[in-house]
């Protein structure tokens, strides 16, 4: 029996059944953001696709930022001009990291070494991106 016919026999229409309605993704929770600068250039929260706290095996928590394709190209140019020198990452004028650049960062991902607690790292990541991190499994809700 066809699904629509079966629903009609049950007195249901696809538009009224939860299983048939298109589920929209949950709205991003807005958080107050700060001014992120990388190598002296400002990056907007919209350019940060994901920001998350990453605990390491020693109990320290760092931050991983994943930038949009356009921002990743800017990051590659900035980091390329700083090879052999430190690249400062700051939020609201406070330095978060100043790691030595050995080669241009071409993948649009920055890992800021850990020195925070997990709750501090999560709050900092939200302040950078303005939202919760993406789920590890994009198919999950």
Automatic annotation (TrEMBL):
* Taxonomic superkingdom: Bacteria
Pfam families, alphabetically? SecDF_P1_head
Keywords assigned by UniProt? Signal
Annotated ranges, domain SecDF P1 head subdomain: 46-126
Against InterPro entries, the record matches this protein to: SecDF_P1_head
Question: Would you indicate the residue range of the signal peptide?
Answer: 1-22
Q: Does the keyword Translocase apply?
A: no
The molecule here is called SecDF P1 head subdomain domain-containing protein
Q: Which organism is it from?
A: Rhizorhabdus dicambivorans
């Amino acid at each position: 029996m066809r699904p629509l016919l079966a629903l009609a026999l049950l007195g249901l229409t696809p538009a009224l059944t939860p299983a048939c309605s298109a589920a929209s993704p949950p709205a991003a929770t807005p958080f107050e953001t700060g001014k992120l600068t990388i190598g002296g250039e400002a990056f907007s929260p919209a350019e940060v696709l994901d920001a998350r706290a990453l605990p390491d095996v020693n109990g320290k928590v760092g931050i991983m930022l994943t930038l949009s394709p356009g921002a990743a190209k800017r990051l590659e140019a900035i980091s390329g001009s700083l090879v052999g020198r430190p690249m400062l990452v700051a939020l609201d004028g406070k330095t978060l990291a100043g790691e030595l650049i050995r080669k241009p960062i071409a993948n649009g991902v920055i890992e800021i070494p850990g020195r925070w607690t997990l709750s501090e790292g999560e709050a900092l990541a939200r302040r950078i991106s303005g939202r919760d991190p993406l789920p590890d499994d994009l198919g999950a809700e």
